[in-house]
C-alpha cells in the first residue's frame, strides 16, 4: 500500500501501518482497504459499499489525509496541507 498520491512508498512496514488504518472511521477504512489492499476501482468500491463514486472519492481523500497526519505524528511522513 502506498500512502502518497505519487506512488512513493511511505517507508513504514506494513505491521506498523495497520493500527493507523484500523484507527480510521469505518467508511474511510473500508475505502482505503478496498482501494489499496484489494486494488478495486472507485466504481467497484462504490458498488461494494452501495454508495456514489463521489462518496468513495471524498472518503478516500479524508482517509488519506488522516493517514498522512498520523504518519507525520510518528515522524515517518510529513504533513501536506491540502488547502
From TrEMBL:
Question: What domain of life?
Answer: Bacteria
A single BP term in Gene Ontology: DNA-templated transcription initiation
Q: Which CDD domains match?
A: Sigma70_r4 (cd06171)
- Key word Transcription regulation present: yes
Q: Which residues form the RNA polymerase sigma factor 70 region 4 type domain?
A: 21-67
Taxonomy of origin reads: Bacteria, Bacillati, Actinomycetota, Actinomycetes, Propionibacteriales
Q: Which UniProt keywords apply?
A: Sigma factor, Transcription, Transcription regulation
Q: Name one GO molecular function term.
A: sigma factor activity
Tell me which InterPro entries the record gives: RNA_pol_sigma70_r4_t2 (IPR013249), RNA_pol_sigma_r3/r4-like (IPR013324), WH-like_DNA-bd_sf (IPR036388)
What protein name is recorded for this chain? RNA polymerase sigma factor 70 region 4 type 2 domain-containing protein
Classification via Pfam families:
Sigma70_r4_2
Q: Which family does it belong to?
A: Belongs to the sigma-70 factor family. ECF subfamily.
Report the source organism: Nocardioides islandensis
